[in-house]
């Protein structure tokens, strides 16, 4: 038995290390007469091969935007005179844009509502989350835009109205690209950590992000402009888990193989059916925003605490494909095997 | 693998041949060349997309800091592997990780990458489940090996002796195999 263990270990070591000549000869001799060890050695090689297939994974675009944005921002640059002229023009345009926005805003009294409109999602279970600590919309905020209107010439960025109102499907961002070439930009949180990143290939690009109410920064090359997301319509339902150390799983949707089918029915019912550990008294409800695409985020609330979040993807045939839930360790919630 | 890669070609910058532009170009080249491997290492080792993105970003920002102080390493790949390995091991061992990314940050809006495509395969899902039962140190060593690092390079990145690394990696392969067999038995 000890002998077999030694040769199995040698077979494993041979994958990464050069064996000594004596070790190699002993191993080959043993494998020639031991089908079990030969099978184990083959399994080690197959495991190593399978590992190679999952070892390389591109990083999210937001990471690239943050790294290269930091590299560009921190590098001292000589600003050409024409850039200063362009910057002045941009700022002037931003000022005009802001004034226009104020006018438009005042002309549309229904956009700002003193009493928040009821959420089309219905009344969700009140859950104490970190969102409560986020800045709430200032009552005296003069301009609240329906979308973030950002302009960047490749060096300098401007935002016409620094406060934007979340929409049903998320936070809308319109980026005007005056650089004359594809333009990379990033959305950072208040500490400068990149959250999103995109590239505007042409003169402008429209984007929708699921940013929670709070303060963010629009970063374009050397320029950073802050903006604030407010949510008077209560469109955003926090998917933040109440526990500080959630188990493994994903907090977003998952990509499935083309043609994959899931159980048919309302998404909340499917989630209840597909997750093990949900109790009858648990509240299962939509979370985040309601994106225009076919993805949904669902949270499970127990005793006022968000204990699990899972992504659901429509399969195009009235069914839903459920990802791996991110759940608090003591919730007992897992995905049913084979579902 | 990075340690045996030839030195990078000199970067030619037309128009702005200054140190700042050179550093930006070096960072772009380093990111494009190594980010897939570094992020793959972080993702497979931590099994946490948010933490993996965080580690990847931190490793490259530290590289930027080195460059700003005139210490841009000759062996960029080796430096990144060593730094990210340290970050992975130290952060993954913390019982509590501050989750600074907004929910759904990593998964939403990203193109189909090898992670999602590969994990669509049942065999790879089993492998991923088996990896979950191993320690972070085991996973780091196995992923480094899977990315093409030799035993010597893995020892260097882990800061261990050749003998200790050989023993560690050998046992890690045994633990991975046992975990896969347990998964198949269920």
What does this entry look like structurally?
The complex is a heterodimer of chains A (339) and B (186). Chain A has helices spanning 2-16, 21-33, 35-53, 61-74, 81-107, 267-274, and strands at residues 148-152, 157-159, 163-165, 171-177, 183-189, 194-200, 204-209, 214-220, 223-230, 275-276, 283-287, 295-302, 305-314, 320-322, 326-327, 334-335. Chain A has 339 residues and is of the alpha+beta class. In chain A, the strands form four sheets. In chain A, strands 3-9-8-5-6 form a five-stranded mixed sheet, with helices on one face. In chain A, strands 11, 12, 13, 14 and 15 form a five-stranded antiparallel sheet that branches. In chain A, helix 1 packs parallel to helix 3. Chain A is extended. The two termini of chain A are 40 Å apart. Chain B is mainly α and 186 residues long. In chain B, helix 7 crosses helix 8 (162-185). Chains A and B meet through helix 1, helix 3, helix 4 and strand 6 of A and helix 1, helix 2, helix 4, helix 5 and helix 6 of B.
Topology:
The complex is a heterodimer of chains A (339) and B (186).
Chain A: H1 2-16, H2 21-33, H3 35-53, H4 61-74, H5 81-107, E1 148-152, E2 157-159, E3 163-165, E4 171-177, E5 183-189, E6 194-200, E7 204-209, E8 214-220, E9 223-230, H6 267-274, E10 275-276, E11 283-287, E12 295-302, E13 305-314, E14 320-322, E15 326-327, E16 334-335
Chain B: H1 19-46, H2 49-68, H3 76-92, H4 114-119, H5 122-132, H6 136-146, H7 151-158, H8 162-185
